[in-house]
Amino acid sequence: xxxxxxxxxxxxxxxxxxxxxxxxxxxxxxxxxxxxxxxxxxxxxxxxxxxxxxxxxxxxxxxxxxxxxxxxxxxxxxxxxxxxxxxxxxxxxxxxxxxxxxxxxxxxxxxxxxxxxxxxxxxxxxxxxxxxxxxxxxxxxxxxxxxxxxxxxxxxxxxxxxxxxxxxxxxxxxxxxxxxxxxxxxxxxxxxxxxxx
Length: 197
Hints:
Mean pLDDT: 73
Radius of gyration: 30 Å
Order of helices and strands: HHEEEEEEEEEE
Helix content: 10-25%
Number of strands: 10
CATH architecture of the largest domain: Sandwich
CATH topology of the largest domain: Immunoglobulin-like
Largest sheet: 6 strands, antiparallel
Number of helices: 2
Oligomer: single chain
Structural class: alpha+beta
Strand content: 25-35%
């Protein structure tokens, strides 16, 4: 039994070493300062995304520009995300199986509303999210809330801000989508926290 395991292990090692051996023997590194322009690194999918890719092995790629004497090269990282401020009410839940938290969000001169929810009621619901701003400005959107219990969100379109951040509020109402429209939960961005008692 040990010989069988040794034979299988040796076979696996040989199979794994063939692509590596071919990658080392095949590329032409002539004229390349660091080898990242082609060859082993690109064969294994490890090439630097900032270096030019090698499409032909007969003509060498120019070396990457070196850092200027004034300082190190600029680091490339993920793009900086714009800052978004939020003002949220408490997380609320109803005995009917609906949980929600509603927020006012602001960023880059725009304001919008968002309600995070989870529906464990076992039936599809309607959600209406309303954002109220200064000078009677109102934005409203209707969202379908599926019967599953996966978390979701309902969000209004972004509008240009027209006042102080605390002059905006949002309310989300979750109801049964029928003629009666039984309200199951109302969640606001400035709802009072539930009291114990």
